[in-house]
Amino acid sequence: MTYSPAVRDHLLAFADDEHLVGARHTSWIGLGPFLEEDLAFCSIAQDELGHGIGLYGLILDDDVELDAFALLRPAEDYRSCWLAELECTDWNDSLVRHWLYDRAEALRWEALAASPDPAAASLALRAQREESFHLAHAEQFMSRIAGTDSTGRIADSVRRLAPIAAGIWDPTATEDDVLAEGFVTTSSAQLAARWNDLIRADLARWGIDVDWDDAGVVGAQQHRTQRSDGFAAFHADLQRVLAVDTSATW
Amino acid sequence: MNVYEVFLKKPGRDEFRHAGSLEAPDPEMALMYARESYNRRGEGAEMWLVDRADVLVADEADLDVNTDKPHRHNDGSLVAARRRDRREGVGGDE
Predict the structure, then answer these.
(1) What confidence tens digit (pLDDT) does each residue in A91-113 have?
(2) How many helices (H) and strands (E) in chain B?
(3) Would you tell me the crossing angle of helices A231-239 and A5-25 to the nearest 10 degrees?
(4) How far is CA A161 from the centre of its chain?
(5) Domain spans of chain B?
């Protein structure tokens, strides 16, 4: 399947988000708050990386090497949002990011599942099965610790990360063309409105009283063409092993 | 946190087998963690979880008294040997 440049960019944005958030989640391997959670969270990370591979697979020609494309592109060629790039060294932040991201991810897969493109729709259907587990995990963990968040650390994470998460809905520059083609029928703005309702309903249900200011991330990302501050170090880290010998066969 | 014992059953006629245990704050999360801890590769088609607090544990001393009773290991082999011997005319003193 050959996609138009607009659709390709739209899918690339999703693929890069999945890849990078999955890679960020993996930083908890062996460090999770307890063994069972370590395994569960790393399963989610692995699923996100798998989704990234699936999405890259849609847009890459057969002769393009996946690892090189995913890891060795120049920074300006990525279309990730800043939430996916963000380093979360604190478990509260990672958990809150996971919840904010997966709430959005589920909506993005839902939109893709309705695409007339059979390859994209079938990938979305498969991903939705895993996504229901991710959402259940986020709901279960957040609902349990929310009631005991006496230090307000969860609320603080939400206050800092929700504005960055809004950058998930920064559309690629040519999203109007994607909609005009009919590849998907819901715009990022429409999904953003639903996402906003969902996360606020979650917070109300969990009894977390928090509000936040728009950090201007959506504008600063400039249709996902600008990388966040920590990206260069993250990118170098991801490339570390592959760069030892780029001609090696793994 | 509670400890839960996890049992898995493969498809077909195999019985449930003990897979291991895990810690979780409540039953709902225990089921989620059990799936991720013991069924990551689809090892089972069915899963049971039992709160360890609900497991009745026998006194090991009560079990120990039955370890030296070979007469309870009757598999019929002694009877079979005697019948064979009679058939073949060996012994035959009965």
Answers:
(1) 999 999 999 999 999 999 999 99
(2) 3, 3
(3) 80
(4) 13
(5) 2-87
Tens digits of residue pLDDT in A202-228: 999 999 999 998 888 989 999 999 999
What kind of fold does domain B2-87 have according to CATH?
Ubiquitin-like (UB roll) (3.10.20)
- Report the DSSP beta bridge partners of residue A146: none
Position B5 scores a pLDDT of 98
Facing B24 at nearest CB: one of A36, A43, A136: A36
Q: ipTM of this predicted complex? A: 0.83
Q: How far apart are CA A52 and CA A48, in angstroms?
A: 6
Contacts of A139 in chain B (CB under 8 A): none
| Domain edges within chain A | 5-244
CATH no., domain A5-244 = 1.20.1260.10
* A159 neighbors A210 (Cβ within 8 angstroms): yes
- Other CB atoms within a 10 A radius of the CB of residue A221 amount to 22
**CA–CA distance, A27 with B52 (Å, rounded to integer):** 32
Q: What percent of chain A has pLDDT over 90?
A: 85
Which residue, among B6, B33, B40, B43, would best test binding to A if mutated, counting the most A CBs under 10 Å from its CB?
B33
